[in-house]
Amino acid sequence: MEHLAPPTGQHPGPSRIDAVVSGELSWTEVDLVDLAGGETEALRSVLETYGVRVNRFPVGQPRHLVAALGGVRQAAPYVVLSCHGADGGILLDELIPEVARNQPFLGSAGPDEIRAHLRFPGSVVISTGCDTGTRALADAVFDAGGSAYLAPESEPFGHAAVFAVLYLFYELTEGRTLEQAVATLREHDAELAKWRLFLP
Predict the structure, then answer these.
(1) Rounded to an integer, what distance in angstroms lies between the CA atom of residue 90 and that of residue 113?
(2) Cβ atoms within 10 A of the Cβ of 92, count?
(3) What confidence tens digit (pLDDT) does each residue in 7-56 have?
């Protein structure tokens, strides 16, 4: 199947779900990376209802994250990092010493770790983690090949983070551009206004 690139200009046509109704298996694809647990099954279920093909990657260790998003890879048009964040980094679980010694990095994935280990060739990258909406992380995503980066600047409620992803993809499914979808998202309420879109 040919994957549609993330929208960047006006999309005057009908809902993208029409492609699925007409026989396509999906209208786009998402790599859903589960670093937090508890949210991705709900996200996957609803995104598939929107006609999105979802590849779910459970991540328990930094080397899992690198296996999912590192090296030469055919990335999906969208990558959703379902995660917790702090101080401008994506948090990973604390590991016992026997497991920790075999990791490419420990603790969190900040700009240096993203540049060194992850690749997002052409993907729109969406993070749900608190405090991950920083210019430093965005620039690292761009250096790793990402085409856009969306994340909260501060600390949204957990349920708001889930809704933000679903709301965004609803807008995209209905033919809005990425910029239009984010603008509508941010206008919804004060929690969703915490999300910021970064472009190269």
Answers:
(1) 10
(2) 22
(3) 444 444 579 999 998 999 999 999 999 998 678 999 999 999 999 999 99
Q: Hey, which residues does 183 pair with through a beta bridge?
A: none
Q: Nearest Cα to 4, choosing from 64, 78, 74?
A: 78
Phi and psi at residue 100, to the nearest 5°: -60, -30
Answer for the pair 56, 40: CB distance below 8 angstroms, yes or no: yes
Q: Distance between CA 18 and CA 174 in Å, rounded? A: 10
Name all contacts of 131-136 with Cβ < 8 Å and 24+ positions apart.
131/85, 131/86, 131/87, 131/88, 131/155, 132/81, 132/83, 132/85, 132/88, 132/89, 132/90, 133/194, 133/195, 133/196, 133/198, 134/88, 135/198, 136/88, 136/110, 136/111
The answer to whether 129 and 76 have CB atoms below 8 angstroms apart is: no
Q: What is the pLDDT of residues 139-165, one digit of tens each?
A: 999 999 999 999 999 888 888 999 999
- B/e letters for 150-165, b = 16+ CB within 10 Å, e = fewer, are bbbeeebeeebbbbbb
Q: DSSP assignment, residue 6?
A: P
Cβ(126)–Cβ(103) under 8 Å?
no
Whole-number Cα distances in Å, 2 to 19, 25, 27, 97: 12, 11, 9, 44
Helix or strand or coil: residue 54? strand
Dist. CA 127–CA 152, nearest whole Å: 8
pTM (predicted TM-score): 0.90
16 close to 174: Cβ distance less than 8 angstroms: yes
